UniProtKB/TrEMBL annotation:
Coiled coil: none annotated. Residues 23-143 form the Integrator complex subunit 1 INTS2-binding domain. Pfam families: INTS1_INTS2-bd. GO terms for cellular component: integrator complex. This is Integrator complex subunit 1 INTS2-binding domain-containing protein. One of its GO terms (biological process) is U2 snRNA 3'-end processing. It comes from the Eukaryota. InterPro entries: INTS1, INTS1_INTS2-bd.
């Protein structure tokens, strides 16, 4: 069950609390056991921050419900993860600096079924036609009959 007021409050969280700061590399040691679920998210404008990957996933899941009454927060969150005319942010593992998978297949499946066109476009534009067919065959896309 979706609670519109709850989504509106949750959508306001990133705008108030996710302050993207440009950070210089530090010599601080990160311990794998403490940071295995954390990634460094980097945007094209040289901003980056360290986040739990679950924060990224939950933000994108919220976007799947589409805009609510106050779409200002929705648009702000959408611009963070799927900016217009810019590349999507990339994630890097803290311990190895290798690029991490920011949006796994299960989340892409949710995005394909989203009411937000920018989410659908973000998934489809990265897939070639030959990749799209096996993706749909593997996961399926539910159809609502009326």
């Amino acid at each position: 069950m979706v609670y519109p007021n709850a989504n509106s409050e949750l959508l306001s969280w990133p705008k108030q609390n996710l302050r993207l700061e440009t950070r210089q590399p530090t010599d601080d040691a990160f311990y794998w056991s403490e940071n295995q679920d954390q990634v460094v998210v980097s945007w094209d404008n040289d901003e980056h921050c360290t986040l739990q990957i679950l924060i990224v996933h939950s933000s994108i899941i919220l976007l799947n419900y589409g805009p609510v009454e106050n779409s200002e927060h929705f648009e702000a969150l959408l611009d963070i993860w799927f900016p217009l005319n810019e590349e999507q942010p990339k994630a890097y593992l803290i311990d190895t600096s290798e690029e991490a998978l920011l949006i796994p297949d299960w989340l892409k499946l949710r995005m394909i079924r989203s009411n937000a066109p920018r989410l659908v476009d973000a998934v489809v534009e990265k897939l070639e036609a030959l990749q799209l067919v096996p993706f749909i065959e593997s996961f399926g896309i539910p159809v609502v009959y009326s």
